[in-house]
């Protein structure tokens, strides 16, 4: 079978990632979104260097990870204490993955200006911490820490406009 039509571009791959993020009840949503992102990176390396993940790609990946956090927290609330204290089961490892992804985006933006953290990526991390609040006592403080970081970035933005990460109504 031969497929006709234009070759895939960044938005084609982003469409697939977005489709996976719509699976809001599936624990493997983050794995599937990551698989699509890695496939895009492979396509960039082997087929077309102009097809590359952008800020939207990584923001959607973060959204998929946040979905997994929410599902794990919801599941843990109905389980015994042993599972609630396991970072792999209680969402803390996934929140760390969100933080690591945000750091990766920041670092990558130094080299690739089309990738930079933005309000949406920070709001995703805040949302994950908010969802974790019923299970983790320090979650509200961690969410506030992310908000404070956004405020600092907004203040720095006046001096150098690299990130568009100003807090919005969702952040607060």
Summarize, please:
By secondary structure, this protein is mostly helical.
Textual characterization of the structure:
- The longest helix has 22 residues, at 55-76.
- The protein is mainly α.
- The protein has 7 helices and no strands.
Q: Topology of this structure?
A:
Blueprint: H1 10-21, H2 29-46, H3 55-76, H4 81-84, H5 92-111, H6 119-132, H7 139-157
In terms of structural class, how would the helical and strand content be classed? mainly alpha
| Radius of gyration over C-alpha positions, nearest whole angstrom | 17 Å
- List the uncertain runs: none
- Share of residues in helices: 55-70%
Helix/strand order, N-terminal first:
HHHHHHH
Instruction: Please count the beta strands (DSSP E, at least 2 residues each).
Output: 0
Mean pLDDT across residues: 90
Backbone shape: globular
Largest sheet: none
Q: Which percent band covers the strand fraction?
A: under 5%
Report, as a whole number of angstroms, the end-to-end distance.
Answer: 52 Å
Number of helices: 7
């Amino acid at each position: 079978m031969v497929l006709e039509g234009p070759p895939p571009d960044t938005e084609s791959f982003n469409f697939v990632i977005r489709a996976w993020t719509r699976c809001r009840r599936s624990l493997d949503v983050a794995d599937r979104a990551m698989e699509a992102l890695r496939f895009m990176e492979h396509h960039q390396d082997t087929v077309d260097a102009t097809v590359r993940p952008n800020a939207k790609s990584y923001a959607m990946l973060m959204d998929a990870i946040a979905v997994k956090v929410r599902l794990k927290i919801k599941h843990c609330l109905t389980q015994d204490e042993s599972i609630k204290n396991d970072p792999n089961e209680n969402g803390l490892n996934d929140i760390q993955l969100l933080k690591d992804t945000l750091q990766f985006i920041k670092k990558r933006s130094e080299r690739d200006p089309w990738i930079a953290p933005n309000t949406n990526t920070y709001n995703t991390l805040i949302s994950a911490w908010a969802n974790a609040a019923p299970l983790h006592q320090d979650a509200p403080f961690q969410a506030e820490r992310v908000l404070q970081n956004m405020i600092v970035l907004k203040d720095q933005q006046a001096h150098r406009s690299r990130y568009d990460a100003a807090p919005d109504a969702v952040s607060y």
